[in-house]
Amino acid sequence: MLVHDNLPRRQNNADVQKKESINPRKLTSTKNRRRYSSSTVVDSRLAEKIADVKKKNKPFWLQSLMVLGHGSSTFCYLSVAIAFVMYGMTVYAPKQWTNKYNKLQELQKQERQFSFTEEIIKNQLAESAKQSGSGLINPDPTQPPIFLPEITPKTVELNKSDTVEPKQIEKISPIAY
Fold first, then answer.
1. Per the count of CB atoms within 10 A, which of 55, 66, 141, 143 is most buried?
2. 59-92, pLDDT tens digit by residue?
3. What is the chain's percent helix, strand, coil content, to nearest 5?
4. Element spanning 142, H or E
5. Cα(12)–Cα(15) distance, rounded to whole angstroms?
6. How far is CA 175 from the centre of its chain?
7. In whole angstroms, what is the distance from residue 38 CA to residue 24 CA?
């Protein structure tokens, strides 16, 4: 006996089509039913397959590669952050400090120029005061300066009575409880 005689025979698609009679009304209604029902079935089957794939244990080498990928991403972000901090410490901060220091030097130079100019003006004023026709007089220490108003203090008198009597306080009784 031959082996291929024991195997079940496959049916060709042509044989199946010959056996079924094609009805156009039945075909369209079946298509519509299959289209709507098959989309939900396909979606649920797809969701089940995805859940099965996620539930299945992944091989160790795949898990280690995934961990390595996540670790390298974290290391990359961390190294970029450290690079920004180092840039700030080595380039940006000294640059800002140099700018501020130059501004401080300029302000100190202006302060010295102002104080020098002030001393020159004081010296010129003192020399012009020594000249006789300038209209300036030397201050007299016995008289108050011109810009202060003349103030004469007034004495305050208190009314003193010889006897001090304490005030009598009337008792207040409660009206109601």
1. 66
2. 888 889 999 999 999 999 999 999 999 988 888 8
3. 65, 0, 35
4. none
5. 5
6. 64
7. 20
| CB within 8 Å of 32: residues ≥ 6 apart | none
Interacting residues of 150 by C-beta distance below 8 A, sequence separation 6+: 144
Question: Tokens in use for 41?
Answer: 């079935």
Q: List Cβ neighbours of 115 (8 Å cut-off, separation of 6 or more).
A: none
**Are 138 and 129 spatial neighbours (Cβ–Cβ below 8 Å)?**
yes
Backbone phi, psi, residue 94, to 5°? -65, -35
Q: How many CA atoms lie within 13 A of 99 on its CB side?
A: 6
Give CA–CA dist 165/169, Å, rounded.
12
**Do 144 and 150 form a contact (C-beta atoms < 8 A)?**
yes
